[in-house]
Amino acid sequence: MSHLGNTHSSLNVTSLRDLARKELTKVLDSVRGKKCLVLDPNISGPLSLIAEFSLLKEHGVEKMHYLQSGPLETELKSLIYICRPQLHYMKYIAEHIGHHQKDNLSSSEYEYNLFFVPRRTMICERVLEEAGVFGEITIGEYHLDLIPFEDDLLSLELDNTFKELYLDGDYTSIYYAARALMKLQTKFGLFPRVIGKGDCAKHLADMLLRMRKEVAVDDPSSTLSVSQNIDSLIILDRSVDLITPLCTQLTYEGLIDEVFGIRTSHVEVDSTIVGPTSQKPVSATTTTPNTASTTTQPSPPARKKKIALNSSDKLFVQLRDMNFAVVGGVLNRIARRINEDYEERHQAKTVVQIREFINKLGGLQSEHQSLRTHTGIAEEIMAYTVTPEFNKALEVQQNLAAGIDINLQNDHIEEMINRQVPILQVLRLLCLLSLVNGGLKQKSFEFFKKEILQTYGFEHLQTLLNLERLNMFIKQGSASNKFNYVRKHLQLIVDEVDEQNPQDISYVYSGYAPLSVRLIQCVTKGGPTPIGYPVGANAAANSIAGGGARGIVGWKGHEDALKMLPGKTFDEVQRHDDGAIRSKKLIQGQQPRVTLIFFLGGCTYTEISAIRFMAQQDEGQREYVIATTQIINGNSLLNSVMQKIDHLGHSAGGNS
Amino acid sequence: ITILESYEQKDLNERINKLKIALKWYQDDKEHAFEAKAIDENIRLLQTQAQFEKEMNQQLVGLPLNETVHKCITTNHPNKASKLKSDFKIPDKRFWWIKLKALVEMRDWDELDRL
Q1: Please, what's the b/e burial string for A94-127 (b: 16 or more CB within 10 A of its CB; e: otherwise)?
Q2: Are strands A35-39 and A78-83 parallel, antiparallel or unpaired?
Q3: For residue A10, what pLDDT band results from cuts at 50, 70 and 90?
Q4: In this complex, which of B4, B50, B98 lies closest to A656 when CB atoms are compared?
Q5: Which of A167, A220, A393, A576 holds its CA 20 to 30 A away from the CA of A249?
Q6: Helix (H) or strand (E) holding A363
Q7: Does A304 touch chain B (CB under 8 A)?
């Protein structure tokens, strides 16, 4: 995991990984002797980013299994379960124990240890109690929360937060998020300013402030001092900007996610992709999030190849945030350069020159390899992006986002339903249509609902109800079109986009600037850069008025637009009891400011790209570190709220 | 929730009964007129499918309406398809799409020509 080593960020994110590692070894060492590790399939991916297999082995792990239903066969007597506190896992565990008890009457031979990630919950313990196995198990917690993916990207890897927060009203993930942020505060100091938008974000901020007070009460000596390099925390609620994830991502990394699906910064592609075959790429993205990732298995299954996507791949670093339109050209250029480098060997005459070349060869070859991989992937994506369906959908999206010919788009969507394109595609567009218009007209609303039910099956009635509850697909209210105003005010649509040489974050969607990132721009700079207020003047004014956070403008000047978006807006200043003045002094230092951005309910790869682009524009004045509950795209977003009854056709049909 | 339960029911009659309960729920609530209508339609669909199944010797129950129409055409029951069209008020546009697809699948170029 050397990619985390080069900390060009002033926030030392690697230390978070070390912390998680240390705790993992502690967990493993708490059980003596050889042991068998039973993992929640959803955790194995993130865990592999924390520790490699050899580390587990060093600490006595002999075997690893996924936590599944059915008996668990193992000759090892010590078992360690690591899983999320989810009820069905408890049932599996009880099942395992039950089996062991049946097999050899004295179950005391086995030793069960269960570690919840990140916290134990009462309800899980209750399930174990009811199954009569609670007494057999030693229960602990493994506080794995924010997992560093890159220097500037942390994720909680909680898969279903969006659905839990906004559909089920289950706020557990807010609690987890608050604990994780608290941990950051203990490590890096107090965030001087907490700014955010959205009801759930507000909850998170409140919880964070409360936790800090609790810490202060518990142990007055350990008051946190104001952070020296983090100047603010911006919390954004996914419900504030649902439009962005619904659009098709057009950056390289974003498209990889749309086409293949990225899980814990790994992508699984056909191993034949180096010599590409035409495979239906759409099916790859629609697989349910629960399909076990095979990260920890030493040998991947024959056909699928796992590719790590992170900054240890130099080529990928160059490509990931680019608009896909330029990727082809860049690949071509690099291929030519590598070729030239290879050619150098002919010019090498002296022994020294030859040795020099040999030294370079290793790097050259790995570069070559990664070039081959990415060319393969890019070709596959290309094949997908030239299909008429893709382009039609994209055209509709862009017209909707820009507010052009709304009525015409209705017909396009209707045609897509008639062609029976995958329901996710259709729902993405319909939700977008509803979001940008503040709902659909009664007549077309019911028309589309009927079309969907009749085309894709009546079970989607529940899906539609869910979307309605989320305000993603609704009937038009009396209110005027809010998004129009927001779009104009925040310049979400930029007509002239130079994908080769982007000037504005809108390049990630070829014209549409992600609303969420625009909001962040408002906070840090006072508006979109091209016409924004003179940054310097604003910053100066603010360093006097604000709580010492230089350059953070806050929501000022954008209150009207914010009112049009759902959820509460807040802006809190956190002060050390006597530290307000002192912290200001510290801030005069040379170090760039770090702004931490927390996406509650997930963020997309394009948003990450856009934020990275912003950081580049700032020329080292400000760095952004992104933290999120999970990484999403439009498909995974909708998938989580969709009603799934997959066995429907068979089981019902076979019965009469 | 009863809708979900209904899908777990393997037996067709049980399923229809559950749906009827759900239907009652929604009918009591004015805001959910659409849902009530949809469920009612679903019940009718299931009943029609069961009836057709007997006549055509094809598995139909549980399929979406479109697929049902599709099946009717591919198995040479155009009358049944038209009946579904009028019963469930399928818009012309969509009906022709289904028909087109089905006929192409059957390579029934003569029939296609006649369209």
Answers
A1: bbbbeebbeeeeebeebbbbbbbbbbeeeebbeb
A2: parallel
A3: low
A4: B50
A5: A167
A6: helix A351-385
A7: no
Decide the pairing of beta strands A193-197 and A61-66: unpaired
> Stretch A38-45: mean pLDDT, rounded?
82
- Cβ contact, residue pair B38, A648, below 8 Å: no
Question: Containing domain of residue A459, as a range?
Answer: 389-478
Final residue before a domain boundary, out of A386, A421, A439: A386
Judge: B66–A454 Cβ closer than 8 Å, yes or no. yes
Buried/exposed A545-582: b ≥16 CB within 10 Å, e otherwise: ebbbbbbbbbbeebeebbebbebebbbbbbebeebeee
Do you find a cis peptide bond into A118, omega within 30 degrees of 0?
yes
Q: How many CB pairs under 8 A join A and B?
A: 79
Task: Tell me the residues of chain B between 56 and 85 that have a Cβ less than 8 Å away from chain A.
Answer: 59-66
Residues A38 and A56 sit within 8 Å (Cβ to Cβ): no
* Predicted model pTM: 0.78
Same structural domain, A253 and A380:
yes
Measure the CA–CA gap between A346 and A277, rounded to whole angstroms.
Answer: 35
Residues A397 and A378 in one domain: no
Average pLDDT, chain A: 74
- pLDDT at B40 > cutoff 80: no
Q: How many residues does chain A have?
A: 656
ipTM above 0.95, yes or no: no
Burial tier of A583 (Cβ tally within 10 Å: 0-12, 13-18, 19+): buried
